[in-house]
Amino acid sequence: MPITVLKSAPGQPPQAAAGIADTVSVMLARLRAGGAQVALEYARNLDGWEGPVMVTRAAIDAAAARVPQALKDDIAWAHENISRFAAAQRATAQDMEIELRPGLLAGQRQIPLNAAGCYVPGGRYAHIASALMTIATAREAGVPDITACSPPRGAAGIPDAMLYAMDLAGAHRILTIGGVQGVAAMAMGLFGAPPADILVGPGNAYVAEAKRQLFGPIGIDMFAGPTDSLILADGSADAELVAADLVGQAEHGATSPVWLATTHRPLAQAVLARIPDLIAALPEPNRSAARAAWNDLGEVALCDDREEMAQYADAKAPEHLHVQASDLDWWRGRLSCYGSLFLGEETTVSFGDKAAGPNHVLPTGGAARYTGGLSVHKFLKTVTWQRVTGPARDDLARVTAGISRAEGMEGHARSAELRRLPQADTMAATSKG
Ligand SMILES: NC(=O)c1ccc[n+]([C@@H]2O[C@H](COP(=O)([O-])OP(=O)(O)OC[C@H]3O[C@@H](n4cnc5c(N)ncnc54)[C@H](O)[C@@H]3O)[C@@H](O)[C@H]2O)c1
Ligand SMILES: [Zn+2]
């Protein structure tokens, strides 16, 4: 049976406008040629920022003193969860060593990157939690040099609470600069930062495109577009919670889809009936953002059974996947395509966005088919080594020479044969002679 769509999405999530790629490519070329001078020019023209770019210790301390203690406590509580989760993840990334043959040792090491650049978005909302998610994770991975940047929000620059969070999470330096020029400053090593080995963190279409174009000689976490969320609900779900969760995530903006799949028609109808009121009750500009997201991109699908819901979820490969249904263990075992999974109605995507612990920098737009989100692993290189001694030399020389000659690579064969043990040479000479 085909899935019944009770509310379809008339709009399509916008593809990165062709104009954005061109704009970013021109900006990066100018930044490569003109460095800090050009970055300052963009900061002034795009964000009205004339102030210094590097935030001083005194400015960070002054900002911290202005943050209300209750908010500091909240940020510290969230930071502790995020750091502890990342530290536990770090412990799963192990060095290893194996003796493949007598005298043939090989292993892998986990080596942190030398320098990370964390982009903390700050255009529409002040994404305090994103600062914790990127910087604390780099820190727990063991990256010794972490630069964070964020655009100024008005004449006061980066908001006090954001500076506090960036500093608490362990940034070694903070730059007041955003957008393409912020990403470029970290990639190219401007304003006193070393050139980053990896650029991480969410951002708008200009930021994402800048990371994409810089990728290659420099690493990136992933290509992250507008956020998306899917709720799977059965008859046990609470329509009020489901509706509130959909509206909450729609607040991200007009390009952020939210979807519901359910086996229970009365639930779908109750949610559909409730959503307009919840949207109307939001303050502006969040109300307009949520309304546009819901009207254009919101979708409600009625499924026959839970297996059909699971197939719907795998096809969407959502960034956030929230199950409000019974038998949560079955769901955790069955679902395979999501950035992060939220199990049960006592949790909510908001918890994960701000404070729970698992990273909120996640694959969007179906990228969860092939990747998970930001983790300590993105800041680690799994590299290998090998060491040959004694008895393994002759076998390796023989096999390598054999394969090399079959490939037509005589130079490789000779390098290999030079490693034969002297005794083997003698034996070969004896048996020949
Ligand atoms: N997936 C996640 O985990 C996650 C988490 C938080 C935020 N986000 C996303 O991050 C994004 C934040 O976007 P934002 O805009 O609020 O902040 P932002 O910091 O990403 O972008 C602001 C910058 O954009 C640049 N800019 C704006 N208009 C421009 C133009 N016409 N040409 C060149 N540059 C221009 C400016 O320099 C400005 O500094 C949202 O899309 C949000 O959904 C995602
Ligand atoms: Zn969210």
CATH architecture of the largest domain: 3-Layer(aba) Sandwich
Poorly predicted runs are: 428-433
Determine and state the CATH class of the largest domain.
Answer: Alpha Beta
CATH topology of the largest domain: Rossmann fold
> Helix coverage percent of residues?
40-55%
In N-to-C order, the SSE pattern is EHHHEEEHEHEHEHEEHEHHEHEHEHEHHH
How many strands appear in the DSSP assignment? Answer: 14
**Would you identify the CATH H-level superfamily of the largest domain?**
Nitrogenase molybdenum iron protein domain
Bound small molecules, deduplicated: nicotinamide-adenine-dinucleotide, zinc ion
Strand arrangement within the widest β-sheet reads: 1-11-10-9-12-13
Characteristics of this structure?
Rossmann fold, binds nicotinamide-adenine-dinucleotide, 3 domains, binds zinc ion, alpha/beta, single chain, disordered C terminus, 5-stranded parallel β-sheet
List the helices and strands and how they pair.
Blueprint: E1 4-7, H1 18-47, H2 57-66, H3 69-92, E2 96-101, E3 104-112, E4 115-119, H4 128-141, E5 145-150, H5 160-169, E6 173-176, H6 179-188, E7 198-200, H7 205-214, E8 219-220, E9 229-233, H8 239-250, E10 258-262, H9 265-280, H10 286-297, E11 299-302, H11 306-316, E12 320-324, H12 328-334, E13 340-343, H13 349-354, E14 380-388, H14 392-407, H15 410-417, H16 422-432
Parallel strand pairs: 4-5, 4-7, 5-6, 7-8, 9-10, 9-12, 10-11, 12-13
Antiparallel strand pairs: 1-11, 2-3, 3-14
The protein binds nicotinamide-adenine-dinucleotide and zinc ion.
Nicotinamide-adenine-dinucleotide (NAD) binds at residues 23, 46-47, 121-124, 127, 130, 151, 178-180, 202-204, 206-207, 224, 226-227, 252-253, 360-362, 364.
